[in-house]
What does this fold into?
Amino acid sequence: MMNNIELKELQVKDLLVDTEYQQNINKKQCEKISNNFIVNLVKPIEVVLRDDGKYYILDGKHLVNVLKLKNIEKTMCRIHSGLNYEEEVKLFLAFHDLKNYSRSK
It folds into this structure.
């Protein structure tokens, strides 16, 4: 796996969700984020840059949905590139396994 990582501000409207391996947006989760939203505390969104030049969200899709609802146009992203689709899915699963592990503690 050749995973290059770059931190860069991207347009929120350009951040996409791959529904092949991600579930639909959970509105309750978005409400929870929105109710506690502080723009200065927004963490970078984890995205993958695919060969077609499009950015797909690996972690942070609910936060991106809230950013869109609040008309925030740009956000910091940690961009992963150089991955094939299988590696992308594995990275997505790793992010979510880590989240679930930290929540269970």
Q: What stands out?
A: The mean pLDDT is 89.
